[in-house]
């Protein structure tokens, strides 16, 4: 078990024991990541604050939902944060907020002050995504940051649903393979 | 729907990006749960997605950390029903011991005097205990409560208050004891055993508050754990409450976040017998005290200060229906 995985097991055990120190540690480790992701998907920093709080509170209340045998904590937190954020985006109220954001032109300011290595590797992910064929990149970004379903992506791009799904799959696989080839698979999580 | 391997492969990219429809997500999760290699594949693609998200890391305002730690301290676990009822009973009993003769004739919110309201609490406790002896006993609803109260009060005119309190203590001990005495799946007057006890927790708090209000004393809230026990029941009752009010919404889901000591988060289906969907149609945030007071019909829907994201009409229906079972 590497150091990171051991820490994740330890945090989970302490969360189950209701140790607030474990929540603080987890927040200090992943707070910027969760908030940044939510802010980018939702486009509203106030709503992203609520999502951030909800994500960490859900771990506080249900730490057993995270299974260290299935994956890394950061990936799990990212998945929960992303799902919460797109839930919000897909609701009518969020769409209204998003329009207001677009009109105001306000964007969250990237502020990478935590886990430098993770961010460096995240930059590799982004760089690999930049290398993807434009149509794959576009489908992935619309889905992930735009909160669209593959059906909406297909509609928006005027392509069949099957094509939208395959662009997402092929794009993600290509990036995963490229990271693995550089020995970076799992390193950032 | 059960997926084939080909269908999983077709959808895995969209799934890793959270870009599937809710029913497809459920099907993928079922598939992944039964296929270890597929789970590893999903994890690998999710790591890429999570890496995309990390590139925009942004420090949240310091207030988020403070709010989170404060909210976490408020999130306590519910108590076992008998412990919750005993704890609230002790608080009520302490209050009763502060009452003096001149307090007893003061009129309360619901038209009963202080003395009569305590008699009412004991009479309804007793009605539930009697119902517990008969597995097929009739449902006790707000109409039955009125009948039992009217009958009991007419029989106890002139009863010394000390005797009323003694009877209350004795009856309440028996009520708390139902937890030990009955199996968990036993119904009492139409309610599950533990729900019956938590209904009485609600009733004890609510009437305690009525009495304090009538006597010009400040409200006093139950412990966080007791509040959480009540909130759990209020949320469990919500689908039925919507149906009772004729505002059930089949196929809809709400997430209710109750804030303050004893609060929590619940994702509930908006019609009886349904499972909540992954993506709620509305998120309602409100004070746990407000919600429980609304459940007990002590405040109007407009008095529940709720923040709503999503279907505002559904949020209104939820708040309006929350008191559907008040009056016990």
SSE inventory with pairings:
The complex is a heterodimer of chains A (189) and B (328).
Chain A: H1 3-16, H2 20-42, H3 45-61, H4 73-90, H5 92-104, H6 116-131, H7 134-144, H8 150-157, H9 161-181
Chain B: H1 5-16, H2 22-33, H3 36-54, H4 62-74, H5 81-96, H6 114-132, H7 142-155, H8 161-181, E1 187-188, E2 191-192, H9 193-214, H10 224-236, H11 238-244, E3 253-259, E4 264-269, E5 282-287, H12 288-295, E6 307-310, H13 312-321
Parallel strand pairs in B: 3-5
Antiparallel strand pairs in B: 1-2, 3-4, 5-6
- What is the number of E strands of chain A? 0
Percent strand of chain B: 5-15%
CATH homologous superfamily placement of the largest domain in chain B: dinb family like domain
CATH class categorisation of the largest domain in chain B: Mainly Alpha
Distance between the termini of chain A: 14 Å
Spatial strand order of the main sheet of chain B: 4-3-5-6
Oligomer: heterodimer
Sketch the major β-sheet of chain A: none
Q: Per the principal axes of the C-alpha atoms, what is the gross shape of chain B?
A: elongated
Low-confidence stretches of chain A: 103-117
What is the makeup of the main sheet of chain B?
4 strands, mixed
Keywords, please?
heterodimer, A: 189 residues, mainly alpha, Rna Polymerase Sigma Factor, Chain: A, B: 328 residues, alpha+beta, Four Helix Bundle (Hemerythrin (Met), subunit A), Nonspecific Lipid-transfer Protein, Chain A, 3 domains, four-stranded mixed β-sheet, two-stranded antiparallel ribbon, 13 helices, 8% strand
């Amino acid at each position: 078990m590497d150091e990171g995985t051991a820490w994740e097991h330890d945090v989970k055990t302490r969360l189950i024991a209701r140790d607030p120190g474990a929540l603080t540690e987890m927040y200090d480790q992943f707070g910027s990541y969760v908030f940044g992701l939510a802010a980018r998907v939702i486009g509203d920093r106030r709503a992203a604050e609520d999502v951030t709080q909800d994500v960490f509170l859900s771990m506080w209340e249900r730490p057993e939902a995270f299974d260290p045998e299935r994956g890394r904590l950061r990936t799990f937190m990212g998945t929960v944060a992303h799902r919460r954020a797109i839930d919000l985006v897909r609701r009518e109220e969020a769409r209204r907020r998003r329009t207001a954001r677009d009109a105001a032109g306000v964007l969250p300011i990237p502020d990478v002050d935590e886990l430098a290595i993770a961010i460096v590797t995240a930059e590799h992910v982004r760089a690999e995504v930049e290398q993807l064929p434009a149509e794959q990149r576009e489908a992935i970004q619309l889905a992930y940051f735009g909160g669209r379903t593959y059906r909406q992506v297909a509609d928006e791009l005027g392509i069949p649903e099957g094509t939208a799904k395959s662009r997402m799959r092929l794009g993600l696989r290509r990036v995963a393979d490229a990271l693995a080839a550089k020995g970076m698979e799992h390193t950032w999580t | 729907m059960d997926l084939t391997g080909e269908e999983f492969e077709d959808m895995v990219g969209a799934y890793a990006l959270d870009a599937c429809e809710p029913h497809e997500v459920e099907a993928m999760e079922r598939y992944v749960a039964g296929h270890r290699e597929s789970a590893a594949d999903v994890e690998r693609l999710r790591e890429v997605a999570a890496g995309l998200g990390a590139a925009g890391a942004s420090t949240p305002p310091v207030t988020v950390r403070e709010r989170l730690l404060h909210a976490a301290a408020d999130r306590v676990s519910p108590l076992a029903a008998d412990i919750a009822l005993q704890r609230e009973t002790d608080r009520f009993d302490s209050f009763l011991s502060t009452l003096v003769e001149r307090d007893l004739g003061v009129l309360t919110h619901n038209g009963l005097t202080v003395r009569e309201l305590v008699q009412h609490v004991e009479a309804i406790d007793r009605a539930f205990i009697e119902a517990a002896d008969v597995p097929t006993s009739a449902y006790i609803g707000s109409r039955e409560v009125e009948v039992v109260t009217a009958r009991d009060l007419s029989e106890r005119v002139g009863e010394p208050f000390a005797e009323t309190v003694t009877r209350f203590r004795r009856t309440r001990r028996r009520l708390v004891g139902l937890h030990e005495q009955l199996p968990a799946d036993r119904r009492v007057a139409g309610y599950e055993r533990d729900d019956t006890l938590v209904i009485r927790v609600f009733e004890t708090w609510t009437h305690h508050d009525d009495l304090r209000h009538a006597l010009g004393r400040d409200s006093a809230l139950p412990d966080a754990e007791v509040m959480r026990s009540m909130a759990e029941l209020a949320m469990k009752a919500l689908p039925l409450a919507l149906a009772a009010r004729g505002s059930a919404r089949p196929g809809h889901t709400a997430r209710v976040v109750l804030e303050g000591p004893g609060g929590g988060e619940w994702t509930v289906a908006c019609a009886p017998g349904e499972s909540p969907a992954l993506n709620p149609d509305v998120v309602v945030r409100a004070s746990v005290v407000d919600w429980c007071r609304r459940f007990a019909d002590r405040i109007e829907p407009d008095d529940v200060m709720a923040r709503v994201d999503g279907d505002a009409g559904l949020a209104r229906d939820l708040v309006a229906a929350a008191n559907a079972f008040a009056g016990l």
